[in-house]
Amino acid sequence: MRLRFLAIDPDTDGDDCPALHVDEETGNLAFIGETITDADDLAAIKAHTGPKASETAVIMPARMRKLILEALRDLEDDPAVP
């Protein structure tokens, strides 16, 4: 997997920060964030879908919405990413 950095939490202190990457070979996205551990939140997720044993649900801060949307728009015009 060839991950390219796209965005990072603007309020990060540089350690353990939420971030977004893209796999340049597949176009898949990798989100790095806090693992959801709250039982009610996990139950709400499981009411609609997994996660299966190999998956983890993560939280992305609301302040990253604009950055994520901008990064995704930029990927639409990037011929290097499928």
Provide key terms for this protein.
82 residues, alpha+beta, 2 helices, globular, three-stranded antiparallel β-sheet, single chain, two-stranded antiparallel ribbon
The N- and C-terminal alpha carbons lie at a distance of 13 Å
Mean pLDDT score: 90
Strand pairing plus helix content: what structural class? alpha+beta
Tally of helical segments: 2
Q: How large a portion of the residues is in β-strands, by DSSP E?
A: 15-25%
The largest sheet is: 3 strands, antiparallel
Report the order of strands and helices. Answer: EEEEHEH
Q: Mind telling me the C-alpha Rg? A: 14 Å
Instruction: Provide the spatial order of strands within the biggest beta sheet.
Output: 1-2-3
Low-confidence stretches: none
User: What is the total number of structural domains?
Assistant: 1
| Strand segment tally | 5
Shape: globular
Helix content estimate: 10-25%
Q: How would you describe the overall organization of this protein?
A:
The protein has 2 helices and 5 strands, in the order E-E-E-E-H-E-H. It is an alpha+beta fold. It has one domain. A 3-stranded antiparallel β-sheet has the order 1-2-3, covered by helices on one side. A two-stranded antiparallel sheet has the order 4-5. A hairpin with a 5-residue loop joins strand 2 and strand 3. The radius of gyration is 14 Å and the shape is globular. It starts with a strand and ends in a 6-residue tail after the last helix.
List the SSEs and their pairings.
Blueprint: E1 3-8, E2 19-23, E3 29-32, E4 34-35, H1 39-46, E5 58-59, H2 65-76
Antiparallel strand pairs: 1-2, 2-3, 4-5
